[in-house]
Amino acid sequence: MTGNEALEVVLVPVLSDNYAFLIRDAETDEVAVVDPGEAAPVERALTERGWRPDWILLTHHHHDHIAGVETIAKAYGAKIAGAAADSARLPALDASLVAGEDWNFGAQLVEVIDTPGHTIGHIALYFPKGKALFAGDTLFSLGCGRLREGTALQMWSSLSKLMALPPETRVFCGHEYTLSNARFAVTVDPENAALKDRVAEVEAQRAANEPTIPTTLGREMATNPFLRAEEPSVKAATGLPDADGATTFAEIRRR
Ligand code: ZN
Ligand code: FE
To answer: Is 102 a catalytic residue?
Structure first.
């Protein structure tokens, strides 16, 4: 459990390296499941707590984020919320989410942020009161999602929207990729002391079989090379001292 007073979040490891999340609004006891790529571990985590989900929230259409939806929706009568733009590729939606149209979960506002790049219809869900961002496969700790459908420029613009959120925002990512991301990060940002500290911490966490998630946005801004594409030191290490952020980002992603 990694809570603050407003929004409790439970990490549920599913499949080989995915995370699903249980979230609970403290004021109303409303419960949701985010990105259930597998049903059984999520149902076990719910049963342990005596929780029943009212909602299933989806960031994008990939199988490893939605495969458990049908089973969980049937078992609990949970409703499904996802991107209106991707409704043809998602399970049938009860709430069609659109960027700029706020949605409510329990007593909290949820900001829907369009984050195309990994997929075209990808969204991130930001809970300002709960200080939590569900980033799906857009932003990982020390990394970012692969460009399966979108362009580097789209992904850079999506990440730039997330970078504008408050630094204390807890970032919940869709995968435990941090250790392999760390090994790559030091190749493009070798002089970054904060990154070196983070790499040592991540190695210790993974050796102890602990999750490296959540991270915070402030910490990612200081250590994640994909968010540091505007930094002169990262541009220099990438061999693009005069490039703009988008170009440097594209080169880091290409590598
Ligand atoms: Zn994905
Ligand atoms: Fe994924």
So the answer is: no
